[in-house]
Amino acid sequence: MHSNKIPSAIFGRMGLELTIKKGAQTVNTFYGLLQPLRYKNKIYLKGVATELGYDSLKKYLLLSPADIDLSDVDGTEIALYRENTHLSIDHTEKVYFGSSPCYTWSIVSKEE
């Protein structure tokens, strides 16, 4: 499957190690690209007051391999971690190239 080889190579070379855990047990480890979301006013380095309330800017875009299923990650029983940082998934979708899944994008939030 050619559509999956390029993203997999990019995730493996440039991605950060992320772990899916069920309780204390590691279920899966994979590499993904994680970057802060940039808001349209491009004020994303500090928290900002918006029309909808205070935005602490703890939201990130996660690009991950298509074969990693993040739909089961609920943040309580099954959780996503970057080192010791707990990440919760707000939304996740697969991107297809033709009929083949290519990669998954997700909006994640840092949990305190």
Order of helices and strands: HEEEEEEEE
- Helix percent band: 10-25%
CA-CA gap between termini: 39 Å
Largest beta sheet: strand ordering = 1-2-5-8-7-6
Portion in strands: over 45%
Main β sheet profile: 6 strands, antiparallel, barrel
What's the shape? Answer: globular
Mean pLDDT across all amino acids:
80
Number of helices: 1
Report the radius of gyration as a whole number of Å. Answer: 15 Å
- Spans of at least 5 consecutive residues whose pLDDT stays below 50 are none
Query: How many DSSP-defined strands?
Result: 8
Q: Which structural category fits the helices and strands? A: mainly beta
Overview in brief:
The chain is 12% helix and 54% strand. The chain is mainly beta. Strands 1-2-5-8-7-6 form a six-stranded antiparallel beta barrel.
Describe this structure in words.
Helices cover 12% and strands 54% of the residues. The protein is mostly beta strands. The strands form 2 sheets. A 6-stranded antiparallel barrel has the order 1-2-5-8-7-6. Strands 3-4 form a two-stranded antiparallel sheet. The radius of gyration is 15 Å and the shape is globular.
SSE map:
Layout: H1 2-14, E1 16-22, E2 25-36, E3 48-50, E4 53-55, E5 59-65, E6 78-82, E7 85-97, E8 100-110
Antiparallel strand pairs: 1-2, 1-6, 2-5, 3-4, 5-8, 6-7, 7-8
